[in-house]
Specification:
It is a single chain. The chain is α/β, with parallel strands linked by helices. The protein is built from 6 helices and 6 strands, in the order βααβααβααβββ. It has a single domain, classed as Rossmann fold. The protein has a 6-stranded mixed sheet with strand order 3-2-1-4-6-5.
């Protein structure tokens, strides 16, 4: 992965820790491994919160909360964008202009705030550009 910082959406992070996700699990693990090696990974407080809820409550075999907490502690070694009130307003404005969900727009705003050029996500068309962010689907 090149020199731009890379923002990781919640689903990619979840798939990396969900063996039942099959080929998505393998692809997500590889993407995260590349980011650990390069040091270019970025997440937000929203992503970490969604990750915790998803892996401890929504997976076929939920993860123990303590294990999820340990993963989040590891992820906090990356750049973490704290969702600030003005970002909520920016996400509302982006949502009005794009028609994307509010939560997806908040991810894009966080990626911009984190000075990322790329967003790893399966929620948008791979290769599309939203604002200053290029979407890539690593799955």
């Amino acid at each position: 992965m090149s020199g731009d910082k890379i923002f990781v959406d919640t689903h990619i992070l979840v798939y990396a820790y969900d063996p039942s996700a099959g080929t998505k699990h393998d692809a997500a693990r590889n993407a995260l491994s590349d980011l650990w090696t390069s040091g270019l990974g970025v997440v937000s407080t929203q992503v970490l919160q969604e990750f915790f809820v998803t892996v401890t409550r929504k997976l076929p075999k939920p993860m123990a909360p303590g294990m999820a907490r340990d993963i989040i502690i590891d992820m906090m070694k990356w750049d973490v964008v704290t969702v600030e009130p003005d970002m909520i307003l920016d996400a509302i404005d982006l949502q009005q202009g794009t028609g994307c969900s509010f939560w997806d727009c908040l991810i894009i705003v966080a990626a911009e705030r984190g000075r990322c050029g790329v967003l790893l996500s399966e929620d948008f068309s791979s290769g599309s550009i939203v604002g200053k962010i290029t979407i890539k689907n690593p799955l």
